[in-house]
Specification:
six-stranded antiparallel beta sheet; 4 helices
Amino acid sequence: MRGDMRAIAGKAVVSLRERPSSGVALDDELLYGMVVEVAGEAADEEEGERVPWMEVRTPYRYTGYCRKEDLILDRGRVAAWEAGELCVVMQGFADVLDQPRVQGVCLESLARGGRLLAHRDVDTGEGGWVCVELADGRRGYTKEKFLGPYYAAPFTEDEALFRERLVEMARGYLGTQYRWGGKSALGIDCSGLTSMCYMLCGVYIYRNAGYVDGFAVHEIPVAEKKPGDLLYFPGHIAMYIGDDRYIHSTGRNGDDGVVINSLNPAHGDFREDLLLKLERVGSIFG
């Protein structure tokens, strides 16, 4: 298979695993409409060649295996997809219906971060609706308010606005359950939360909780942290939101998902265990 082969995630949430097997833990997820590089095909470790997997590489340099059936591999579709006006689902979930009315049949239900092509030249005949195209070429309709623009680069050079937007994105996941390897409103882990917030603002950061050179994030003094900056702990990552508080996805019993905690012992949501383990602060600014 040629190394320049690309594919589109063709399901609302596509599971990525370290090996071609459903029996190993979730490693990452692709959301609908994301485009990945395809490295090759592999047989399922348990089922053999009758259940094919594809090895893929994401734009944030993460590799893994997903079911071949979950991808759209047609070169023409990929080219049309990348050439069109991409938009992004911005709320927890959004239905794509076969007609611009709430009684329409649901074609797909997509999670926040899923991508669609917008056809704004199509007259829907109804206010508040927009015609969209799915990755397989089908057309449908969803509410305009459910969508936002897709950013292939930082959406603004205004640092204050960018930081504000990052925090807004993170707060939108509050209450989402913790899911190892997840990054949707169905379930999200710590690095899934931070990487999705940055991705929705047009910046790719490292998918996992570690600090890795070669990405936009660089280390800054702890005292200089501002909203939107990243807090690194051993095997964990959070986003600072100001007033000594941070938002993160945690599997700790009693939290079980996206919550806000504090670095300040005077606050009721203080977590001493994480304060003592804070290793560094990262920022894309300055």
